[in-house]
């Protein structure tokens, strides 16, 4: 594999098999609390799986710069803990019933318990990161957490109303892409990268994170409930305006615009069906528009890697943007 292009997700994860297994063991240790309910919730979430793309980015960033020590395992667990904490809080805010095809934690344990469990996961992430004894790492994580909380608050303010593309990109950067970007920066930080390398890897993370969220938002509108593990068009039901919908609102007929606005106003599909929305998106070419934007960010991500020396880890990073854009769940 070291002499060939890495072209599938399995090849990427095979390259990091031992590292990711070590991250998983670290997560198992970090998810243990003296309060059994917290341990149960953390273990439930860990067993729910997920793509582990954030630890993967951190590991690839560190290894592409020649780093091989245990800090990347520890920080790989840290970024996954932060991500898990955001999922717990998001499900409470969104009143979600399902997550990855299973009952959400708030459905099982209740909102009050899960708010505190999410807080504990954030603090455990910082406690684990503190073992690196590196102020820059803590500074990156603090800035990241502030951005993500601000993004959640901004999204709440905008629920049920039209937003433009600039607002959309600001939201998805704060809620998703900033964690991708910081994951890359943390890997660079461990490897003592120079400022040019660190900035390039941060830009890679930002671009692939934006592509990831755009595709996620498209799949929410186009995939099946079985593929999503939650109801179709959950974002629109919750009053969230995503890129394909923004495009359709700008390019649809007056009747189509009114139908989309009605869903946002109703907070669900009362007088308009998900199938009606899908027909509007097809007619306006809005799904293709959103996927083209994701493709442009994927290309930006690849371009950012020109500063890296060739290696199997760089080739894995080069392949990830296409894998992100082409996924179907």
Key features of this structure:
single chain; mainly alpha; 17 helices; Farnesyl Diphosphate Synthase; two-stranded antiparallel sheet; 329 residues; globular; 1% strand
Describe the structure.
This protein has 329 residues and is mainly α. The chain has one domain: Orthogonal Bundle (Farnesyl Diphosphate Synthase). Helix content is 75%, strand content 1%. It contains 17 helices and 2 strands. Strands 1-2 form a two-stranded antiparallel sheet. Strand 1 and strand 2 form a beta hairpin. Helix 4 (53-64) runs antiparallel to helix 5 (71-94), helix 8 packs antiparallel against helix 9 and helix 9 packs across helix 10.
Helix-strand blueprint:
Layout: H1 9-15, H2 17-30, H3 36-47, H4 53-64, H5 71-94, E1 98-99, E2 102-103, H6 105-109, H7 111-130, H8 135-158, H9 165-190, H10 195-222, H11 225-228, H12 234-237, H13 243-251, H14 254-266, H15 274-284, H16 286-304, H17 312-326
Antiparallel strand pairs: 1-2
């Amino acid at each position: 594999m070291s002499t060939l292009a890495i072209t599938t997700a399995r090849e990427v994860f095979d390259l990091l098999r031992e590292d990711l297994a070590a991250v998983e063991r670290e997560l198992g240790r970090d998810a243990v609390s003296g309060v059994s309910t917290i341990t149960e919730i953390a273990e439930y979430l860990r067993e729910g799986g997920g793509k582990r793309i954030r630890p993967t980015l951190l590991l690839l960033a560190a290894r592409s710069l020649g780093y091989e020590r245990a800090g990347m395992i520890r920080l790989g667990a840290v970024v996954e803990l932060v991500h898990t904490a955001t999922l717990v809080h998001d499900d409470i805010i969104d009143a979600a019933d399902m997550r990855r095809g299973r009952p959400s934690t708030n459905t099982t344990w209740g909102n009050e318990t899960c708010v505190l469990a999410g807080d504990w996961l954030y603090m455990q992430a910082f406690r684990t990161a503190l073992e690196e004894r590196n102020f820059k790492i803590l500074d990156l994580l603090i800035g990241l957490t502030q951005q993500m909380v601000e993004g959640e608050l901004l999204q709440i303010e905008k629920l049920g109303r039209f937003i433009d593309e600039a607002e959309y990109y600001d939201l998805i950067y704060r809620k998703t892409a900033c964690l991708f970007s910081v994951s890359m920066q943390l890997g660079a930080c461990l490897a003592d990268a120079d400022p040019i390398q660190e900035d390039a890897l941060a830009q890679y993370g930002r671009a692939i994170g934006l592509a990831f969220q755009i595709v996620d938002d498209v799949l929410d509108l186009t995939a099946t409930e079985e593929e999503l593990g939650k109801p179709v068009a959950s974002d629109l039901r919750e009053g969230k305006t995503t890129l394909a919908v923004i495009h359709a609102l700008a390019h649809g007929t007056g009747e189509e615009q009114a139908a989309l606005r009605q869903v946002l106003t109703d907070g669900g599909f009362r007088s308009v069906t998900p199938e009606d929305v899908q027909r509007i998106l097809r007619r306006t070419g809005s799904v293709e528009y959103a996927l083209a934007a994701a493709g442009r960010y994927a290309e930006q991500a690849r371009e950012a890697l020109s500063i890296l020396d060739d290696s199997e880890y760089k080739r894995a990073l080069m392949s990830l943007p296409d894998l992100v854009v082409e996924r179907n769940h």
